[in-house]
Every structure is written in structure tokens, then in C-alpha cells.
Amino acid sequence: MISLQGLSMATPEEIPRTRCGYTPSESIRAFDKAMLESGALGTGKALHFAADIVTSGGIDSLIRSMWDYAICHIGLASPRIFVYLKKRLEEIRKMMAQLPDEGAYSSEEFQVRMGEIVLVLREAPARTVLPWPKVGAETHSEGWIRAIAAAPETAVLRKVWRPEGDSSILRTVGAELCKAITDGATEKALFWVKWLFEEEARVKKEVKGSSLTSYERGAPGSKQKAGVGFFVLALYAETYKEFASKGLTRMHEEFQTLMDLWRTGKDIQGGAKKQILTVLTQILCEVPRWKVPAAPALIRDPVAMTQAIRQVPKFFREVLAYDPPTGIAAITKAFRSRGTEVKPKPKKGVPAEEKMSAFDKALDDYFARA
Hints:
- It contains 17 helices and no strands.
- With 370 residues, it is mostly helical.
- It has two domains: 171 residues, no CATH class; 153 residues, no CATH class.
- Helix 2 packs across helix 15 and helix 3 packs parallel to helix 13.
- The longest helix is centred in the middle third of the chain and has 21 residues.
- It is elongated and about 65 Å long.
- The two termini are 22 Å apart.
């Protein structure tokens, strides 16, 4: 059982709280932690906190946590997760746009879809994304690059590099990146990607307005943008096409989804966006060497998944038994900040376990399912 003992209680005027009495940051942290816990208890906690966050106005923050988990803890272990998550979250947002908030929260279809996402994420095999290699400051010199660069220009690089906007260093490092990918050297490929971002930052810092590229790139029909990230993405797209034409990769939808998320995913921020490039790099370097170069099935045990999904509405009903939080603007802002709120003075006379009785009942029902 999760206990609120030790957590400060306060009136809504003092600090925003969710339906179940948590501060927004407490609820988000508890959800993130529960997603990493194994077994039925971890599943029950994740469903409870997901229901609490969603019905308290924190759906955007929850969605960000879901993407972070998929990118940083699943990654290449189940690339199909990105296609599934994008589709399901689009459906969720559509339902939210069509119904009043409380109407959506009370809809069993909405509850099931939210809970299904949590269960599918937890069911997916885990594979922590590779850490980015270190890039020493000494590597950012013309002499170092000239001494180490030896990779020949490829057909892929010739399609991507543009003399009218790209610097010569992009052609040199682009060739090294292409060679690393062809060799299946994931860490080396990531080194060159990181090197490009660091070199771009160095150049911009030294001379205001400078850049490694001024050539604008982007997906067809989207806003075109310049920058080394878009250069790398264009290089990856052409490399994937070449591999696919040879039958070395069969992850077309998964690869395209990841590229779209990097370009325009508003729910992808900070480290998760950087890790998308890691997963794309892994696909290009590792998948061509798989016996079957395609994404495995997303659900391993459909029967067990169906049984678990049936329990989801119970968690929502128990959370919805509490009144909606007051000061929705303040609590939504607190969810967006995802920070640690200032703790107010404790409020006496409220038994901590009373707040969690609904959660205990929902867990009992979950454990007792057929």
C-alpha cells in the first residue's frame, strides 16, 4: 500500500493538489517510478496514478511521461511502440476535444484507452537507450579532423549535402557518420552525431549568427528548418531508403514515426528528443544485422492483456469518487512545471490512510481478477 504519511496536507488555496490529495509533482514522480516497478503491484500503482493525473488536469504531463518511458526504457526492444503510442494518443486528444473534461473522464471508452496505453507500455520489453559517448574538446579542431577523416563520400551523402548552404565540415563528418552506420558501429555513429551538435554550438558561440548549415530541410509540406539536427535526419532518411531497397530493414512506419516525432513532436522534450536520434541510429546500425529486420509483435499475450484491460475502469471509478481539484488553472500550471512545489504547513486531523482507501480497493480488485 502506498501511504501519504509524511506528505504535507494543505488547503487548495495554499498549494494545488490532485483528486487523491497529491501535489502534481508527487503524482508524476510516483507514476514514473511505478512504470519501472515489476509485477501486479507496479501495474496497479501505475494505473492509479495515471487515473489521478488525467482526471486532475494533467493529461499533457502524463503524455510526456509516457513518451519519455517509451523512448528511454523501451526503444529498440519494441520499435512498434512508437507507432502505437502516436495513434492512441491522437485518439485520446480527439476524445478530449469532443467531450467536456468530466464527460471524457467518466467515459469507459476513454478510461480503457488510457489504461490500455499504460498496460501496453509496461508489457513491452525494456531496453535502456545507450548513453551518448564522450566527445573531447580536443576533437573540435581543424587539425584533429584532418588527421582522422578518411571515409569516402557516399551516394547517400551526395544526395543530402548541399554546397549552397552546408559547410565543408558537414561533408567530411557526414562521410564518417555514413561509414560508421555501414560498419554497424553504433557508438561511433553516435560520437559523430554528438560531435556535430557540439561543433554547431561552438561555432554559434564564437561568431554570432554563424552555423554549420543554412540550408533548410524538413518533411514534405512541413515548415522547413536549418540546423545540424535536420542534416542528420536527412542523412538517416536517405540511408534508410538505401537499406530498405536492399531488404536490410523493414521498419518503414516505425522509422518514419520516430523522424516525425523528432521534427514536430510537441510532447517530446529535452533528453527524450536527443534519445530519439539514438534509437534511429540503433535501427540503422543494428537492425540490418538481425535475422528478421522487422519490429516484433507489440503484444505478446493478447489474452492476458484483454483481462488486464477489463480492470482499468475500476481504478478510474475509485479516483473519480473524489471531488475535482479546485483551481484548475493553478494545478495545470503545476503539472506543466513538473517541479517540486514548496511544502506548506501540515494540516492536522486528516488520517493519511483514508486518502488511499480507494487505491487499496482498486488494487484488491486488480489482484483478484480472473
